[in-house]
Design goal:
Elements: H1 2-82
Length: 83
Amino acid sequence: MALGDLVVEDLTDVSVDTASALISELGKIGNWLQALGIIVILWIIMQIINFIFNKKKKERLESIEKSLKRIESKISKLQKSKN
């Protein structure tokens, strides 16, 4: 019986050491995944901000384009009236 108790005690020690090492490694992996998640969230936020700025630029360019078309039509009307 004494030998059986020693074997069980050794197995318990090994399994506790293995479990603590496994938990430690899982914790490290969890930290890396958390850091990766933060990076992805920051990237998404930057993309949203970039999208908003690009939309505003596009709206400004479209208003400039409309103004140019209006000016061109007025110039062509003036040219036709001169001729």
